[in-house]
Structure formats: structure tokens, C-alpha cells
Write a structure and sequence with these properties.
Mean pLDDT: 87
CATH architecture of one domain: 3-Layer(bba) Sandwich
Distance between the termini: 41 Å
Low-confidence stretches: 193-211
Order of helices and strands: HEHEEHHEEEEHEEEEHHE
Length: 211
């Protein structure tokens, strides 16, 4: 059995999306030993979430990440609204937070690129995301948490941690074990082809270049 699979740490982070990756980076900056696992084979390959807001960039600034993120993204300048082929309105977002934040704009930075950027930064701290590894369950034992981990090849191990952080999305195994659920309802919308045109216009309203 792989020594890495059986290794204990202070914090186990379940889920290697942006939330889990940023938590891992922050903890490593504080000198905390972490492991981060994800059941997927690789990071996301689609844009999914696009916008990075000022408060996130302010947090990144404390971590020394903001400059590189801004350089890689596109500043969202505004939206043009078209109706039946005619310009019906324009909403400016380029300085929406002027005087309130050092990052007074919305930044467009697709989640797949965002995740890979954070993974590279985490690798700089000597931490690799443990792929194809899932949390089966966990239980408290005194001041420690005993977690049962399983890899896709069937290898399984029990490891001790001080904390388990559930960053594993809407279908969180951590929340399932705790019985906390994920309250809310789904909304399914079908967008007409005109929405695609609006999306192109929106991107055309962005400024800057993506490296």
C-alpha cells in the first residue's frame, strides 16, 4: 500500500476545486500540514464559473496571488443588451467598485484555468492533489478524526487528522456523513440562441488579454 495513502496530517481537505485549493494554500502558508484529495482523474476542463470578484482578489492579495490572477484574466468592462438586432442598452462594470476596493472590477477567469493556476501554486509548497481518491467515511476519536480513504484501484486506508474540511460541492460526502444536507432547490432554464449572441457580446466588452 502506498505510504501517501496512509499518511496522517493536521487537515484533510476533501475536494480540489477552487475552495479546497485556496484553503490548502492558506493553511500551507501558515505552516499547517495538509492533504487534499479529489475523486476525479484531472482538474475541470470546462469554464463553468467565470467571474472572480473583488473580495476574492483582496483575499488573493494577502496570499500574493492577486497580481498573477489579474494578469491571466480579463477585466469585465460592461454588457451590451441587444433587442432584435438593435442596441437597447449598456451597463458599465469597469469601475463598479471604484473607491471601495483596490480591485474595483469583475475579473473573467474561467474555472478550469483558475484551478490549474492554484494547483501549480500548491505544488510550489510541495503538495500534490491526490487524484482518484475518495472519502468513504469518518468518525471522531477523542481530539482526532479517523477518516477512511479509498483509491479507484481499491486500495483503502484509515488515517488520522485533526480536522476534515468538506470542500466537495453540492453532493458532499462530508455533509452526508454529518447529516447536514445541502438545502436549496434546482433551477433549470433553457436559453434561446439570442443568449449565445449576448454571451459573445459580453466577451467582446471585456478588455485586456489573457496570457
Amino acid at each position: 500500500m502506498s505510504p501517501e495513502l496512509t499518511r496522517s496530517a493536521e487537515v484533510l481537505i476533501v475536494g480540489a476545486g477552487p475552495t479546497g485549493l485556496v484553503l490548502a494554500l492558506w493553511l500551507k502558508r501558515l505552516g499547517v500540514d495538509v492533504r487534499i484529495i479529489d475523486e476525479t482523474r484531472e482538474p475541470g476542463t470546462t469554464s463553468r464559473a467565470l467571474a472572480v470578484h473583488a473580495r476574492t482578489l483582496e483575499l488573493y492579495d494577502q496570499m500574493g496571488l492577486a497580481g498573477d490572477v489579474v494578469e491571466r484574466g480579463l477585466k469585465f468592462a460592461g454588457v451590451n443588451v441587444w433587442v432584435r438586432g438593435k442596441l437597447a442598452g449598456h451597463a458599465a462594470f469597469g469601475d463598479i467598485g471604484k473607491g471601495l476596493s483596490p480591485f474595483p472590477y469583475v475579473l473573467m477567469f474561467p474555472q478550469d484555468q483558475h484551478e490549474r493556476f492554484l494547483i501549480e501554486r500548491l505544488r510550489g509548497f510541495g503538495v500534490e492533489v491526490e487524484r482518484l481518491t475518495s472519502l468513504v467515511g469518518f468518525s471522531e476519536q477523542g481530539d482526532r478524526v479517523m477518516a477512511d480513504l479509498e483509491r479507484s484501484d481499491g486500495a483503502r486506508a484509515k488515517c488520522q487528522f485533526a480536522y476534515v474540511a468538506g470542500c466537495d460541492g453540492a453532493h458532499s460526502r462530508v455533509r452526508e456523513v454529518l447529516g447536514s444536507g445541502f438545502p436549496g432547490v434546482g433551477r433549470h432554464h433553457a436559453f434561446p440562441s439570442s443568449a449565445a449572441r449576448c454571451a459573445r457580446i459580453l466577451w467582446a466588452s471585456c478588455e485586456g488579454t489573457s496570457s
